[in-house]
């Protein structure tokens, strides 16, 4: 990432800076757009009743996601280091207690846990590339497609193999410090993914059930949404925007001083949301047209999209392309989940990048085995009716990320001197700044706490 030396008068990034704001937008969008948008959003929307869930998610993106993204970028740019070192510097600069450094520790842990299951799902995307190429889906019925997917889940060996491949690819990129390479690839591939999703939506429009899909996504039925569903919607706003664990903070550390943080944050959030909504618009009409259940769970896109690909002209080509693009989107997200840990090991433990990546990758790979087994061997072992995968996702995504975000909002809103944040956001003390200030001081923390209390049935 070191292209140009940092010439900041405050803190300097030891890794140099992005050459311009588009490099940052690209990297951050590469981190944000991933399995969360295309795999997770549709399946949790389906499980949580549709429209009302989507509405709460969109609200969370607007009042929690965008302000927290601005906060992460501003903290990162001010501290110019890994999340832990960034927060430590800022604590000193603000004469606040070093307690806040827990944000960094907690974030690294959340990143490790999330990547451990993210990689298993990334493996699903990878194995669907040869599947698609072989024409396996051509003319398949819904049952046949479901059988292929269930066969995959039932095979721990295959899941483990592809989980390993995904981890190996991620850690190779991180170890060689060639994230810039993948970001270049993503610069071309992301627009292609976007166009392909548009093609899929176009296809879905002709299925006869498009209106039903649209209604499912956008017509809120609040009776279908539980308190737990609200918590999941909020957790997903963090997950899909890569917030709450320091991934965006570390990318912000390389952001040149003259870039408007508010603008880039809004661009990233809007792009990410659009991708998720397009995925939903492509998938739900297929679900209804084939008499499938929206609440089919984590396999939803792997049992709906292949049906459509199997029927459309050029399906082998489109399906192969789709899973290649999905894998790239997953990779560019995965590298940001582990970047804080690896950079911290390099800076604080004086490890080489290769050693740091090997160590982190190995730990994450091991935890991932738990997720691999939770789909077959240990699928009956549940805690609070959740398998290992469900529990890990729940704790990391719906509890740890919002807690991380809450801590960042409190730190920036109440402990970091207002002059510092105003200076970094460079919006003066005008209306834009006051809106952000009000949101991170009051609205975001209250919203997170209320959703937590609501889900635990305390209120
Ligand atoms: N946002 C990514 C997705 O939607 C996943 C991701 C990457 C992430 N980095 C993160 C989630 C950091 C939480 C925190 O696929």
Question: Mind explaining what this structure looks like?
Answer:
The chain is mainly alpha-helical. It is 75% helix and 0% strand. It has a single domain, classed as Amino acid/polyamine transporter I, CATH 1.20.1740. Helix 7 packs across helix 14 and helix 8 packs across helix 12. The longest helix is centred in the last third of the chain and has 34 residues. The protein is globular and about 65 Å long.
Distance between the termini: 47 Å
The percent range for helix content is over 70%
CATH-defined architecture: Up-down Bundle
Name the poorly predicted regions.
1-9
Indicate the overall shape.
globular
Taken together, the total number of domains comes to: 1
The top-level CATH class is Mainly Alpha
Annotation field: number of helices: 18
Broad structural category = mainly alpha
Give a quick account of the main beta sheet: strands, pairing sense, barrel closure. Answer: none
What does this entry show, briefly?
With 459 residues, this protein is mostly helical. It contains 18 helices and no strands.
Per-chain topology:
Layout (H helix, E strand, L loop, with lengths): L20 H12 L2 H13 L3 H29 L3 H11 L8 H32 L8 H12 L2 H20 L3 H27 L4 H9 L8 H14 L6 H6 L8 H29 L10 H12 L3 H34 L4 H22 L13 H28 L2 H8 L5 H25 L4
Helix pairs in contact: 1-8, 1-12, 1-14, 2-10, 2-12, 3-4, 3-9, 3-10, 3-12, 3-16, 3-17, 3-18, 4-5, 5-7, 5-14, 5-15, 5-16, 6-13, 7-14, 7-15, 8-12, 8-14, 9-12, 10-16, 10-18, 12-13, 13-14, 14-15, 16-18
Bound molecules: tryptophan.
